[in-house]
Design brief:
By secondary structure, the chain is α/β, with parallel strands linked by helices. The protein has 2 domains: 2-102 and 299-320, Rossmann fold, CATH 3.40.50; 104-291, Rossmann fold (3-Layer(aba) Sandwich), CATH 3.40.50. The chain has helices at residues 10-22, 60-68, 86-92, 104-119, 122-130, 156-167, 190-196, 216-221, 239-247, 278-283, 300-320, and strands at 2-5, 28-31, 49-52, 73-76, 95-97, 148-152, 171-175, 186-187, 199-202, 226-230, 251-256, 289-291. A 7-stranded parallel β-sheet has the order 8-7-6-9-10-11-12, with helices on both faces. It has a 5-stranded parallel β-sheet with strand order 2-1-3-4-5, sandwiched between helices. Strand 3 (49-52), helix 2 (60-68) and strand 4 form a beta-alpha-beta unit. The protein is globular. The relative contact order is 0.16.
């Protein structure tokens, strides 16, 4: 099977080639740096499948081009599939595969790393010490032990976060349409979670129901000075409402690994040019905001698993006519 890989970075090529070799090199991989879109989809000419990432656009126009050039399978090297028009794919006869679980520990641990960095101001301390400034003024933090943490979305990632924070001595609350009996905490309704939590961490998929789940109304229910961490999908929060809450100090600390308009910013070196997104630039001005560039998934273990499952999905489709992990079922986690 010939597979056109979009949004390729050197690490994608390395891990996918390695997984393909370990599987007996069953597929011909063609790598493209371009993001998938209606304009770039023709690059898949002659391919049986394409491999796309989280910020690729697999809307109906792009899928129509892919269908017309002979593509039969969309392989996502991610768990989330909100960037794919599943109804259009079904209409066009295109199968869609995903990687439902690779390393929930990677994202959960990154979530806690952001939280600890914010709470203890490690990112600011690091910059100070490198300049020879050892003053502690402005670096006062707080203990996690005894704090109430609300976990929104208790799929594999949310479950890992709950286990870790339980170990820190936190009281953990959770909310999810499909409660898990192994959850390390207590399930409550979303409103109660927002009202009770000192820290809110988001691990739900992006769906029409969760789009801008954290908006001005949700923020009004939260404690003054609340800490919010989002490592799920950028559009789960309303960025304008978040900025307003930062200005009034309703939000005390904010940690983001995702941003709702990240496709034009993240995964690229923007250091030699101005960031044209005024909203994102505004976020960067707050000293109590820590942003990483969709880095949560980026561990050796996760990339190995993503590549291995992606190759396995393609092999299963070639052999049986359907991938191992089809998109369109209930997504418990996204990354």
């Amino acid at each position: 099977m010939r597979i056109a890989v979009f949004s390729t970075k050197p690490y994608d090529e390395e891990f996918l080639l390695s997984a393909n070799t370990e599987a007996g090199a069953p597929h011909e991989l063609e790598f493209h740096r371009a993001h998938l879109s209606e304009k770039s989809a023709a690059l898949a000419q002659g391919s049986d499948a394409i491999c796309a990432f989280v910020n690729d656009c697999a809307d109906r126009p792009a899928l129509e081009v892919l269908r017309d050039v002979g593509v039969r399978l969309i392989c996502l090297r991610s768990a989330g599939f909100n960037n794919v028009d599943l109804a259009a794919a079904r209409d066009l006869g295109l199968a869609v595969a995903r990687v439902p679980a690779y390393s929930p520990h990677a994202i959960a641990e990154h979530t806690v790393a952001i939280l600890l960095s914010l709470v203890r101001k490690i990112h600011r301390s690091y910059a100070r010490v490198r300049e020879g400034n050892f003053s502690l003024d402005g670096l006062l933090g707080f203990d996690l032990a005894g704090r109430t943490v609300g976990v929104v979305g208790t799929g594999k990632i949310g479950m890992c976060v709950a286990r870790i924070l339980t170990g820190f001595g936190c009281e953990v609350l959770g909310t999810d349409p499909l409660p898990n009996g192994d959850f390390h905490g207590r399930y409550v309704a979303l409103d109660e979670l927002l009202e009770s939590a000192d820290i809110v961490t988001l691990h739900c998929p992006l769906t029409p129901e969760t789009h801008h789940l954290i908006d001005a109304q949700a923020l009004s229910r939260m404690k003054d000075g609340v800490t919010i961490i989002n490592t799920s999908r950028g559009a789960v929060i309303d960025t304008q409402a978040i900025i307003a809450a930062l200005k009034t100090r309703k939000i005390g600390l904010l940690g983001l690994d995702v941003y709702e308009e990240e496709e034009n910013i993240f995964f690229e070196d923007m250091s030699r040019q101005a960031i044209m997104d005024d909203t994102f630039a505004r976020l960067l001005t707050f000293p109590n905001v820590l942003i990483t560039g969709h880095q949560g998934f980026f561990t050796t273990e996760a990339l190995e698993a993503i590549a291995r499952i992606t190759i396995a999905n393609a092999s299963a489709f070639e052999r049986d006519g359907r991938p191992l992990h089809s998109a369109g079922l209930h997504p418990s986690d996204q990354d």
